[in-house]
From TrEMBL:
Pfam families: CheB_methylest. Keywords: Chemotaxis, Hydrolase. GO terms for biological process: chemotaxis. It catalyses: [protein]-L-glutamate 5-O-methyl ester + H2O = L-glutamyl-[protein] + methanol + H(+). GO terms for cellular component: cytoplasm. One of its GO terms (molecular function) is protein-glutamate methylesterase activity. PANTHER family: PROTEIN-GLUTAMATE METHYLESTERASE/PROTEIN-GLUTAMINE GLUTAMINASE (PTHR42872), PROTEIN-GLUTAMATE METHYLESTERASE_PROTEIN-GLUTAMINE GLUTAMINASE (PTHR42872:SF6). This is protein-glutamate methylesterase. PROSITE patterns: CHEB. It is an enzyme of class 3 (hydrolase). Its EC number is 3.1.1.61. Residues 6-189 form the CheB-type methylesterase domain. The active site is at S15, H42, D132.
Amino acid sequence: MKTVQPLYIVGIGGSAGALNAYRGLLDAMPPDTGMAFVVISHMMPTAHSQLTRILSRHTEMSVLLASDGMSIHTNHVYVMPPDSDLTVENFKLKLISPRTGRNKQVDLFFISLAEAMGVRAVGIILSGYDGDGTEGCKQIKANGGKTFAQDSSAEVGNMPLSAQAAGCVDFVLPVNKIPDKLKSLAAALET
């Protein structure tokens, strides 16, 4: 049986306050979008993250801890482990551990996503401090992909506001409205 590649690979970046946003996004996301989702979250290098387990309670999709060389499948959610960087190449995840810097993991993943997927790359910036993700959103947009930022519902607005201020965000929405927009993008791609 041939594996179907995802219509889009959707990078989801967040930091402080993003846990509720991740849950809200997955609660609203149907399990059969034809997309794959990769959660990039700022964590302390020594953290014993329960994010994979927590998020699996909010979706029927398989939620997996990302590992090096892991193939990206449709209707799956991949979670970056602590103390690592994650990139994508040829529908596979590349894990770099230990991480190369602090609070640049979203940019690093989004830039690799833009290069690997072009118009089939989507970046979503959720709650968090600082401006990680802004450069990555610029690259996604420059390569024809789509970008989202959480609206004023973000518990910590710095990351989404930074991306918006840079002029590289296509859609500013509450997390529960993002899935409908993703579905319409996928429908347009399929026609």
